[in-house]
From TrEMBL:
The keyword rRNA processing does not apply. It comes from the Eukaryota. Keywords: Membrane, Transmembrane, Transmembrane helix. The lineage of its organism: Eukaryota, Metazoa, Chordata, Craniata, Vertebrata. GO terms for cellular component: axon cytoplasm; mitochondrion. The keyword Kinase does not apply. Residues 87-108 are annotated as: Disordered. InterPro entries: MGARP. Signal peptide: none annotated. This is Uncharacterized protein. The chain crosses the membrane at residues 12-29, 49-67.
């Protein structure tokens, strides 16, 4: 059996006691759940009502903005399409392939 020297044995005993104290859960005989002190009941101060008013106002404003934008953009869209249709149209002709000049190719 391995025999410890006196200083090593003392440090081993102290370390084992510290390990036992750290790893075992602390159990109180009269343990109670601590109460949280609240200034008021939840929602009683009107804070939730303020959030509802602010979020509801932002939502209503967003809906009004979206409706106004879509309705005015529709009229603008119709005007733009009629303007494009009124432009003179030229017949589209494809370019010849392969190109006749080779100047666009990189000379390597």
């Amino acid at each position: 059996m391995y025999r410890f020297l006196f200083g090593e044995r003392i440090s081993y005993i102290v370390a084992s006691h510290i390990q036992i104290l750290c790893l075992t859960p602390v159990v109180f005989t009269n343990a109670v759940v601590p109460r949280r002190l609240m200034s008021s009941v939840p929602g009683g101060s009107g804070e939730n009502f303020l959030y509802v008013v602010l979020c509801g106002g932002a939502f209503a404003g967003g809906l009004a903005y979206a409706y106004r934008t879509v309705s005015t953009d529709h009229a603008r869209f119709v005007d733009r399409v009629s303007e494009i249709d009124a432009r003179p149209k030229s017949d589209w002709k494809p370019k010849a392939w392969p190109p006749k000049s080779k100047s666009h190719l990189w000379a390597g």
